[in-house]
TrEMBL record:
Keywords: Membrane, Transmembrane, Transmembrane helix. Pfam families: HAAS (PF22564). This is Putative membrane protein. It comes from the Bacteria. The chain crosses the membrane at residues 89-116, 136-154.
Length: 178
């Protein structure tokens, strides 16, 4: 392999560091094999490297695919948000807005039942309502409704975020196909 090819693979490896070692090695083998096949076919190295594009962009494509393939879990969701927030200009606005909305809805889902329980237990100095305490019989359906509404909105926010993440990953994949 020539020096420009080695340099390209080295730069790619640097940008792939967030991947687990086995995934990173697979990607490097795949691209190395692609370079070797092109060399044997007589394709100029400069042309192959131009088609592959920047090592940073190619690495982002593989990272995006990795983040979408791995199971989310609680910490995985926030890792996805962090990754896709750094993918471009729209990510700087869209992803933090979705993350803030999701965090707010999660807080509401957790806080409302606690507030309702405190209201039912008659904790002094605590009431649900604006100005006047809300009657207990009214607090139960309203608290339950608020919790369910927050849950439905949080689920919709996650679906919207997933669609955005898939669209960004598809954009990177299309760059990788060139």
């Amino acid at each position: 392999m020539t020096d420009p090819a080695r340099q390209y693979l080295h730069d790619l490896e640097i940008h792939l560091r967030p991947l687990p070692p086995a995934e990173r090695d697979d990607v490097l083998r795949e691209i190395g094999s692609h370079l070797e096949v092109a060399r044997r076919a007589g394709t100029p190295l400069e042309e192959v490297l131009t088609r592959l594009g920047s090592p940073r962009i190619l690495a982002r494509a593989y990272l995006a695919d990795f983040h979408l393939r791995t199971p989310a879990g609680v910490s995985g969701v926030w890792r996805r948000f962090a990754f896709f927030a750094t993918t471009g200009f729209t990510g700087l606005a869209v992803v933090p807005a979705l993350a803030l909305l999701l965090a707010t809805l999660t807080f509401i889902m957790l806080f409302t039942p606690v507030a309702l329980l405190l209201r039912l237990l008659g904790v002094p100095g605590y009431f649900i309502g604006f100005g006047e305490p809300m009657p207990v019989l009214l607090a139960i359906p309203i608290g339950t409704g608020v919790t369910l509404l927050a849950f439905v909105l949080a689920r919709g926010t996650l679906r919207l975020a997933h669609r955005y993440f898939c669209a960004v990953a598809a954009g990177y994949r299309s760059l990788r196909q060139l």
